[in-house]
Design goal:
heterodimer, A: mainly beta, 6-stranded mixed β-sheet, 5-stranded antiparallel β-sheet, 11 strands, B: mainly beta, 7-stranded mixed β-sheet
């Protein structure tokens, strides 16, 4: 049962442009959402998070938007840089419960 | 941020052998550690949750007799894949949290297991 879904397995963006990665979820109990960045053969590293009481959280070039009514969140990276090329996972959980991860989106930023 | 290490990073073994993977929190005490498995082009799937000094809690469908987890101290958890078979080949990742906050998990670099 895939409760967190990333429907785009890959995305290519020109350097300097905006990258938008999308994530949908099915469980309305989720109250915390996170984005992780992962390079090949490495563990995920935390990028940015948002709680369900907010609809936007910004950290430098990274902004996460949450639309609870649509059960949708997105990660915006602007401007995109070649070093941003990686696989991005969204994850969700509700307090005290396990994390649920999406299948990941591979982002390629073209110089 | 907090650092979690895993050893080995890559292991190749023959079918039928057992493999032990270590997960260590290097600069913090991890009250809870998690073990995940990732197949190619798939999401991280939680296998089990382990708390120091107690038995691990396994997710549905994960054989606890095959994947032995020992969380002997606040800085070390081990996953032993017993009698490994080719279908166990995967990327195994551990993570750890401090206290009871699930807001951030600190992930290890992962272990690539290949069973011949």
């Amino acid at each position: 049962d895939q409760q967190v879904k990333q429907n785009s397995p890959s995305l290519s963006v020109q350097e300097g442009r905006i990258s938008i990665l999308n994530c949908d979820y099915t469980n309305s109990m989720f109250d915390y959402f996170l984005w992780y960045k992962k390079y090949p053969a490495e563990g995920p590293t935390f990028l940015i998070s948002i709680s369900s009481i907010k609809d936007k959280n910004e950290d430098g070039r990274f902004t996460v938007f949450l639309n609870k009514s649509a059960k949708h969140l997105s990660l915006h990276i602007v401007p995109s840089q070649p070093g941003d090329s990686a696989v991005y996972f969204c994850a969700a959980f509700y307090t005290g419960n396990q994390f649920y991860f999406g299948t990941g989106t591979s982002l390629t930023v073209i110089p | 941020g907090a650092v979690v290490s895993q050893h080995p990073s890559w292991v190749i073994c023959k079918s039928g052998t057992s493999v032990k993977i270590e997960c260590r929190s290097l600069d913090f005490q991890a009250t809870t550690m998690f073990w995940y498995r990732q197949f190619p082009k798939q999401s991280l799937m939680l296998m089990a949750t382990s708390n120091e000094g107690s038995k691990a809690t396994y997710e549905q469908g994960v054989e606890k007799d095959k994947f032995l987890i020992n969380h002997a101290s606040l800085t070390l958890s081990t996953l032993t894949v017993t009698s490994a078979h080719p279908e166990d080949s995967s990327f195994y990742i551990c993570s750890a949290i401090t206290g009871t906050s699930y807001n951030e998990q600190f992930f290890g670099p992962g272990t690539r297991l290949t069973v011949l």
